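New here. Invent one.

***
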Amino acid sequence: MSDTTTSTLAAALWDFDGTLADTEPLWIAAEYQLIHQLGGTWSDEHADQLVGNSLLDSGAYILNAIGRVDLSPAWVVEQLLSVVVNHIREHPIVWRPGAIELLDSFAAARVPCALVSASYRVLLDAALSQLPDGAFQVSVAGDEVSRGKPHPEPYEKACTALGVSARHCVVLEDSETGCRAGNAAGALVVAVPHRVEIPKAPRRLHIRSLADLDATAVARMLEQFNGG
């Protein structure tokens, strides 16, 4: 059981890329490298269109942008994923400001956490190896769902695994795609914009940084939105 200051908060559900970890620069560097090898041109504007998307959707976007019909989105994903995973295995992850402190605050308050990412299991396992055992009670990878974000399935799967109702959970996200998934699942979404803007929506709060939060503050947000 969580303590009395966080008892209304059943779980915290975290996005990975751009929310927990500052991995977007790794993905973008991999995109530029691959697209150059394929003879195409890329831009930061194109890269920003991929933030929060499922990897297969991103692969399809890349092929459409560079006019290659002879390759598959799955092949593109394999190339990009290999580069990013190898980097994470060989270098310490750069965490987003306040992320590790907030994880520690949830742990101290005995609030379960789930990692819910569009990235595949091989990447999540590499990332989880750089965190203390038990930092996340559950993790859901993009290759473990049939419908990725913005569909609610990834967050619904995490809630089912934790045995909680999404209505009593808070989702932490840095993209509109992820925020839509969390809201569609029924959770309160705390949007932490990083590379891309996130529009306002019902049951969605915007904050500047995770460093502004602790477990008690998150629980109070949820209580307010649920009419407590």
